[in-house]
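Researcher: Please predict.
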Amino acid sequence: MGKDEVFREEIEKPGDFKFGANVANVFDDMVNRSVPFYAEIQRMMAELAANHAAEGSFVYDLGCSTGTTLIGMDTMVDPNIRFIGVDDSQEMLDKCKSKLMELGCSRPYELRCADLSKGIRIENASVVVLCLTLQFVRPIYREQVLKNIFDGLNPGGVLILVEKILAEESQFNRDFIDYYYNYKRRNNYSELEISQKREALENVLVPYKLSENITLLRDQGFHHCEVFFKWYNFAGLVATKK
């Protein structure tokens, strides 16, 4: 696993964050050092997926990146259930395929390069995962992405959603952001790295409040939403289709 040094050196004007080869090569280190309790979130998602994955259906991971979630679910979900990983970065998918091959993944799976905002067909799904993915979809397209997921889920199917979020009150939002940057400092990110990545993500990662995400899910028809993880400005939700 390469060490994340993408923003270590000063950049005159950081451009918008992109999931290209330089990020794909260090993504596993980046996300483990940037997302609190990332390993535990992965374990929780795998448990949820295992409980809801139905025989003869598909399990989707939208924004599968380097395959960490697929690999986690592979250890718990029935080996005959087909996995479908989708990402709009071919570099990420190449890394994902390499990791799956190294681990000798024997279940049926498919990796697709596609932009969620341009529409994607979901079918015969019992589980769909959006782990730190919806926040990168432009707000104007989020309703349609969730509608596509809802339509493609079988009755009783679930959406597992993990997002960076805004606090409901501005004062807590400022505090939570401070706590988050302290977390990154504890994981050996410098002030320069923190500030340059924040600038690069400013126009790319657009978080919603937890309540706004729940409303968005319910508006698309999801019957119930339950919070299964919360840490300051990160949250995990599981939503069911009746």
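Model: The chain has a mean pLDDT of 94.
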